[in-house]
Design goal:
Blueprint lengths: L2 E6 L5 E6 L2 H9 L5 H4 L5 E7 L3 H12 L3 H9 L2 H8 L10
Antiparallel strand pairs: 1-2, 1-3
Helix pairs in contact: 4-5
């Protein structure tokens, strides 16, 4: 089954990816054979995943989550749907023009 997954890197950042074989991909990441980003921030830890029927769905979800802020990804990981919605809203403060 295809997966979308989130790893926590040693520097505290998140890495989002998709794969057919989650176990193998995690081993590859920790061996430095995954992405260039994770190879520079080892070790990595699997902290979240979603399972899909088609790889295209997992890849589409990967690209969606990659655009999210750290706070929004954290809310997803923690299952805090209320925070997920709040994190999605932008704070448009009126700037004074001088």
């Amino acid at each position: 089954m295809p997966f979308m997954y989130i790893l926590k890197c040693s520097n505290g950042t998140y890495y989002t990816g998709s794969t057919w074989n989650l176990e193998r991909r995690l081993i590859e990441h920790n061996a430095g054979l995954g992405a260039n980003y994770t190879a520079k921030h080892l070790p990595v830890k699997l902290i979240y995943f979603e399972e899909y029927v088609r790889i295209e769905e997992a890849f589409r979800r990967e690209k969606q989550v990659q655009r999210w802020s750290h706070a929004k990804k954290k809310a997803l990981i923690e299952g805090k749907v209320d925070k997920l919605k709040l994190s999605a809203k932008k704070d448009f403060k009126k700037r004074s023009s001088r």
